[in-house]
Amino acid sequence: MPTAIAVTSADLALPPLDERTMPATVLEDIADRPLDQALTQLQHLIDQHGHVIVVCAGSVSAAVRRRLHTVRSLLETDRVALFEPPLPPLGLAVLARQLRQLASCDLGPGVLASAGRLLVHYLHCGALLGSVARLDRVPVDLTSHARSWVPGSRFAVLAHPEPRLVRLGPDTTLPGPEFGTWMLVAKGQMPADWVTATLAPAWNVLGLRETPLPADSADWWGTGKLTEFCAFLPDLSVLYQLVTSVRRARCHWCGIDVIGDRCVFCSATPPDSGERPRHARELPEGRRPAAPHRSLTT
To answer: Residue 146 has what pLDDT?
Structure first.
């Protein structure tokens, strides 16, 4: 049975890219509902799917985070993984959808949960902002902060994989992926023309789609005057080959197969074998991400 992918808000449940993409379970208002209802919902998912991966936004309230840990503890189970990657809201939604794509494949729950830590390295997330005065997720120098108060100022910001902030000008661009991607654009109170007409061609994106702006984006970026974007790998076969090309190990505590140096379900670290995880082999010509592979350590 496929592993369930749950998200903490409806904004993180993007429409599927194809008929194989598994639906997301939305844990809507989990901190506001009675505890027994939250317990029943998670227990039902475990009974149906065996394991549950909860993709949690970093900007989620402390009450939601406490409720998730409380429910997991009361269920006394290692079958619920809480995954909280440091991504902007749109990037997090894209990653959750990639996990939903992979959930339809023959991947064990431990491998699927660990895959999120690998795939995050192939996302390029940023935004076009009208102000960086309240931006605290990306380093902002004093000059950029002062320019935020100049009417009409716009800033191009890359939050992941490497933070970058530049004031928008005629020739402004941002470092992008060195492999073929699609781009998802979420327009807020800032025109998306630079993103769609300048940045997307500069990044050689293969496809461009729009989606509503996540509700948490304004808080994450510190302003409602923004357009958020994320470049990603859309092809399920590429995602699958990336994940299956990494060496697997059996968790010595809960017994499931994992990739990387830690089981996402029980948090156990495998005994040191003197070997590091083997990263992805070459993909077919024209589809291999050229970005450097990184450690799966979180």
So the answer is: 58
